[in-house]
Design goal:
The structure holds two protein chains of two kinds.
Chain A lengths: L1 H14 L5 H8 L5 E5 L7 H4 L3 E5 L23 H10 L8 E5 L3 H13 L4 E5 L7 H23 L5 H27 L6 H10 L5 H15 L10 E6 L8 H9 L2 E5 L20 H12 L13 H11 L4 E7 L3 H16 L4 E6 L7 H17 L1
Parallel strand pairs in A: 1-2, 1-3, 3-4, 5-6, 5-7, 7-8
Helix pairs in contact in A: 1-8, 4-5, 6-11, 7-9, 10-14, 12-13
Chain B lengths: L10 H18 L1 H4 L3 E3 L7 H6 L3 E3 L1 H10 L3 H10 L8 H11 L15 E6 L4 H12 L5 E5 L10 H23 L5 H23 L12 H7 L1 H6 L3 H20 L4 E2 L2 E2 L5 E6 L7 H10 L2 E6 L19 H11 L6 H14 L4 E7 L3 H4 L2 H12 L3 E6 L9 H24 L5
Parallel strand pairs in B: 1-2, 1-3, 3-4, 7-8, 7-9, 9-10
Antiparallel strand pairs in B: 5-6
Helix pairs in contact in B: 1-12, 4-6, 5-6, 8-14, 9-12, 13-18, 15-17
The chains are: A alpha/beta, B alpha/beta.
Chain lengths: 387, 433
């Protein structure tokens, strides 16, 4: 128990360390190391690891930092995440980063990449364009070229060339990472009381700011502890949270949902860490090709990915059934076009499958949870009483 | 609110009205004619390609803005919000979906036909993708052709990006068009259309650059979106478009010769007091009142970014008959909202300088992240680089709940007063204004 308490304390601290202390220490420990910051949702950190770097997730400042300059860069009708990120860029919290990658998920993150260019933070700032064409000979070729651009950026910083051996090794480490995270989700599916959703969130988010080797050790220990019975089962309903893949809800919101009688058995909160469903081939002669192939064929569903032919609503319903969940909580950040434009169709798919749902919006620094707790509590009660 | 009179129109405006009426009539008759209909977007439109298959284009965002101008958008937006669309999201999307749910009545009162093909040319706006994912579910069974346009991340179009686009055109878009239209792709026909495209593009650039004259013979924002630009999107590649732009060009030349200012809905603007560059889309629900605030104050917009969402031709791009597919790809990648922020800043700063603008104004749109995210930084950069006073107002595309006439008028009047004072001071210092 003490072991888990210590791990949780460590992860809780790291998850919201907006000075990225561990990553900075890691870089400072050896010459030639580099830090690459990436925005939500997904970036294949394997390629950074393979060239002596660390891919560090920048998930916003949540309710942990006062926004002073950032609000002067964004109108009130823009989501909250980018104003926290530009705040960090302007107050020098990101000074030790060598470069930044802005994955193609929405117009706000896209334009934020341009703002980083204008304020000249990092040695490079790259908008990372994911293909929306999933044919290997079209989208696959394009995706590989995008990866090669980042590799070239990284090479310009530390002069380390990518090798097959190193990339296969990195792929293996991240395969282990995803497997362990999935194992935690599997245990929580059957025994959600053994590890709260908030603790799970802290553990996974902490993995974005430390080495994958250290994170794997933490995950292994967590799996070991929660493989044994702990905690007390409660008369809670089981829910899946959908729509929080970029701007992250404050911890208070997750706590409120749990306290209102909901076990969160799956979510899209740290979606980037779980993006590839299954393993990437780590014994390939062409490991970069293996990463491309995994993206094209093993990506999870997301509002950032074109879904005609494979609708997200159907995939959400499938997930709910696999997790034996009772309902869905649509929880999207305010002004998040991708999540909010997907919601009606996803709700329709849930309705057709007889899956109850509620929805609300948040900001990463939302401070009042009473209404959300009441809404989630009523949802829980209604399912317990009438479902 | 402002007192709105009947609009005064020039010959080109009448021609435009007739051309658009004919298009909507043709769209209303597709059941009889059997012509296939393609829904697509203005930025990165593949008009020549669509027309080369004898299909008819429908532009949902044009329908939405027309609904805004006809005071229908509030009802349509409400309809979409009833379906679960958030108040926060793009109002073009909600207006279009609401219009479809309420019978798909077009701007001329005729019912628009449903799409035979959804051509998702995804240029410079992530929301376009979400929009057509929704339409695909609202029109089940209608094929979708996706053309993913890479962003000008490095401020240039790379050979790899070009190859990606051309491959998509060849292997995804054109085969679907052949399938839907029942016709084989005809490269020669497409190429010939591009001869016309380039002619119209030359004329369009000359017309837009006429605003460099003092006084400017055109308003490059309000008139730009009202009668200079729209024909371009739907008719590019046709003889009719070349004829229209030839007529318009002659009109503009005549205005320059006579030393006249722009034509407004209430006639000629008598005195050009302020020359502005404007960034961002206009408000459509109160378009006339919005424009009136400017012309009443003697403010003319000499260059704007919104008239470049359908192509930044003044930077030199022309559709090229010798490489039709490559030039379609370059066109899509070159549209304004597909340019990165430093490129946008450079373009706008150049406009301020080249068009001798007195000020730079942003109309920030509540529901358009593609434009709005980053605008405050653009504003600072332009102020820093050009030294002209900058202004900032907020409204929305087609949601009337976000157009506050009094607030906007108040802000603009203060801004124009400041510009006026600055002119006085500069002239006292012997600076040419």
């Amino acid at each position: 128990m003490k072991q888990l308490d210590a791990l949780l304390a460590h992860c809780t601290e790291q998850a919201f360390d907006l000075h990225f202390s561990k990553a900075r220490q890691w870089k400072a420990a050896e010459p030639g190391r580099l830090l690459l910051g990436f925005l939500p949702i997904y970036f294949p950190r394997e390629i950074v690891h393979a060239v002596n770097g660390m891919g560090v997730g920048i998930m916003g400042v949540g309710d942990r930092k006062q926004i002073i300059k950032g609000d002067a860069y964004y109108q009130s009708y823009i989501c909250h995440l980018p104003r926290g990120v530009i705040e960090m860029a302007l107050d020098n919290s990101l000074d030790d980063f060598d470069g930044f990658v802005f994955p193609a998920i929405c117009d706000c993150v896209r334009n934020l990449s341009g703002m980083f260019k204008l304020v000249e933070r990092g040695k490079f700032q790259r908008y990372f364009d994911y293909p929306q064409n999933f044919s290997p000979s079209i989208g696959g070729v394009f995706f590989r070229q995008e990866l090669e651009k980042v590799l070239d950026d990284l090479f310009q910083v530390n002069g380390v060339k990518l090798s097959t051996e190193k990339l296969n090794h990195a792929i293996g480490l991240y395969n282990t990472n995803r497997k362990l995270i999935e194992h935690i989700y599997q245990i929580r599916q059957d025994y959600p009381w053994r590890l709260s959703a908030v603790d799970t969130y802290h553990i996974i988010r902490a993995g974005l700011v430390m080495t994958v080797e250290e994170h794997n050790q933490i995950l292994e220990q967590v799996v070991e502890v929660i493989s044994e019975e702990r905690g007390e089962p409660l008369d809670n309903i089981r829910v899946v949270i959908s729509g929080s893949f970029c701007e992250q809800p404050p911890i208070g919101l997750l706590k409120s949902i749990e306290m209102a009688g909901c076990y969160i058995v799956d979510d899209d909160l740290m979606l980037g860490s779980r993006w590839i469903q299954g393993d990437v081939d780590d014994k390939s002669d062409d490991p970069l090709g293996a990463i491309v192939d995994a993206y094209l064929t093993k990506s999870t569903f997301s509002s950032a990915v074109y879904d005609v032919g494979n609708p997200k609503g159907d995939r959400l319903v499938k997930l709910v059934k696999e997790r034996h969940a009772d309902g869905v909580i649509f929880s999207a950040a305010s002004f998040c076009d991708p999540a909010l434009l997907d919601k009606p169709e996803m709700q329709k798919a849930c309705d057709a499958a007889g899956i109850p749902q509620i929805n609300f919006q948040f900001h990463e620094n939302t401070g009042q949870f009473k209404v959300i707790k009441e809404q989630a509590g009523t949802f829980s009660d209604s399912i317990k009483l009438w479902a | 609110m402002a007192d709105i009179k009947d609009a005064i129109k020039e010959k080109s405006m009448v021609i435009q009205k007739d051309m658009l009426a004919d298009l909507f009539k043709e769209l209303g008759n597709t059941k009889e004619t059997g012509k296939k209909v393609v829904y697509t977007f203005v930025p990165g439109n593949l008009t020549e390609l669509i027309l080369s298959f004898d299909m008819l284009p429908v532009y949902p965002e044009i329908n939405a803005l027309q609904s805004g101008m006809r005071k229908k958008s509030a009802e349509y937006i409400r309809e979409a919000e009833k379906l679960g669309f958030s108040e926060d999201v793009c109002t073009y999307v909600k207006c279009d979906i609401g219009m479809m749910l309420k019978g798909n009545i077009g701007p001329t009162g005729e019912t628009l036909p449903p799409p035979d093909l959804l051509l998702l040319s995804y240029t410079g706006c992530f929301t376009f993708m979400k929009w057509f994912e929704n339409l695909e579910r609202l029109y089940p069974g209608v094929p979708v052709a996706m053309l993913h346009t890479p962003y000008q991340e490095d401020g240039k179009i790379t050979p790899e990006q070009l190859e990606y686009m051309v491959k998509q055109l060849k292997e995804e878009v054109i085969p679907k068009m052949e399938q839907v239209s029942g016709k084989a792709f005809d490269m020669d026909r497409l190429s010939k259309m591009m001869v016309n495209s380039a002619k119209a593009e030359d004329l369009l650039v000359k017309i837009l650059e006429s605003a460099k004259h003092k006084p400017s013979p055109i308003d490059a924002y309000f008139a730009g979106v009202y009668y200079i630009g729209p024909i371009f999107t739907a008719f590019r590649g046709t003889d009719a478009a070349v004829e229209y732009y030839t007529e318009l060009y002659h009109e503009v030349q005549e205005r320059i010769r006579l030393g006249l200012g722009p034509i407004t809905p209430e006639g000629e603007m008598k005195e050009e007091k302020f020359r502005l560059v404007v960034e961002g889309p206009p408000n459509w629900t109160n378009f006339r009142e919005f424009w009136k605030i400017f012309y009443d104050m003697g403010a003319v917009i000499v260059a704007s970014s919104y008239t470049k969402v359908g192509g930044v031709y003044d930077l030199g791009f022309r559709h090229d008959p010798d490489e039709p597919l490559e030039s379609l790809a370059k066109y899509c990648m070159g549209c304004y909202t597909n340019m990165n922020l430093p490129q946008r800043v450079n373009l706008l700063a150049d406009y301020v300088k080249e068009y001798k603008a007195d000020g730079f104004l942003i109309n920030s749109i509540k529901s358009c992240n593609s434009f709005s995210a980053g605008q405050l930084m653009i504003m600072r950069e332009i102020e820093h680089r050009s030294g002209v006073p900058v202004g900032f107002i907020e409204s929305d595309l087609v949601d009337p709940r976000y157009f506050s006439y009094a607030n906007i008028k108040n802000r603009l009047e203060s801004y124009f007063q400041m510009l006026g004072q600055r002119k006085v001071i500069l002239s006292q210092e012997g600076v040419e204004v």
